Amino acid sequence: MYVGREAPHIHLKFGNFLWPLRVASVVRFTTVNGFAIAVGIGAALGLYRVSRQQSGQWLDSALFTLAFSLVGARLGYAWLNQAYFAAHPGEIMQIWLGGLNDGGALAGGVVGILIAARIRRYSPGRLADLLYPLLPPLAVGVWLGCWLSGTAYGLEMPAGTWWAVPVQDESGLVSGRVPVQLIAAVALLIFYWLLELLTPMPRPAGWLFSLAASWLSLVSLVASLLRADPAPRWGQLRADTWLNLVLVLLFFTLFVWAQFLARRQPKGSEITAL
Q1: Positions in the chain short of pLDDT 70
Q2: Of 21, 148, 159, 250, which residue is most buried, by most CB within 10 angstroms?
Q3: What's the pLDDT at 227?
Q4: Using CA of residue 222, residue 223, residue 229, residue 232, what is the dihedral sign?
Q5: What is the pLDDT of residue 1?
Q6: Which residues contact 178 (CB under 8 A, 6 or more apart)?
């Protein structure tokens, strides 16, 4: 989402069928681009999936978690760009200016789940699993939104590279690049489809969400190594690469711990963990 002073209009730009469809609608001073549209659709689909469980009694927790995820995404972006926001602290929570971080969104979502579980006096692991249906469409929507809006784009390839896909950057310039956003979206879609198809029942509390979050963080980690968009660096790597590495280790550790606790319980007893 960007800020502008254009007159209200809707602009559609079409090119090669592999090129991103960039949709921008300007209402008053706010421009809503393809990213907001894709994420909005993903969030709506995720909320619908959650609402189908147990007569929708977990929908309020899903909305609560979404709000914390959005705040976490913005705070994560501000933290990774401390030099700028130290000079402009008033812009930290101005989400409409643009600038979100996927690792921060996931961390914020976890905080939201923990608080919601505390309020409802429910197991955090079980609540996380109940809210899992929110994750796949939202995660896929984020990566498709990045493709549509020309953000999180991949490395530029030499002219004539047969597998390179025409992708635009933030300036609108289109060139053959590693299709990072599409690869990430497809990798998430296939994994989550297989996860829902093959997941064993019953399963330890927290098992489903920790595994899903591990894969999401791993995809973001690998994607960060192939990205060419500007980002602060810590040493030789992007700052978000380090953040996603920490999240992969954290969520995979939780997954292994859930498995370990489940194996220690007597057969026939209710499977609980986190």
Answers
A1: 1-32, 265-274
A2: 148
A3: 96
A4: negative
A5: 32
A6: 154, 155, 157, 164, 165, 226
Q: What is the pLDDT of residues 24-80, one digit of tens each?
A: 333 333 445 789 999 999 999 999 999 998 878 899 999 999 999 999 999 999 999
Find the Cα–Cα–Cα–Cα dihedral 174, 180, 186, 187, rounded to 10°.
180
CB neighbours of 174 closer than 8 A, spacing ≥ 6? 15, 19, 166, 167, 168
Q: Determine the Cα angle at 87 with ends 83 and 91, to 5°.
A: 100
Token digits for 15? 């090119």
Side-chain-side CA neighbours of residue 44 (13 Å)? 6
Buried b or exposed e, range 39-69, using 16+ CB within 10 angstroms: bebbbebbbebbeeeeeeebbebbebbbebb
Neighbour count for residue 176 (Cβ, 10 Å): 18
DSSP SS3 for 99: coil
> Rounded to two decimals, what is the model's pTM?
0.84
Exposed/middle/buried for residue 120 (C-beta within 10 Å: 0-12, 13-18, 19+): middle
Q: Name the residue among 107, 98, 126, 58 with its Cα closest to residue 274.
A: 126
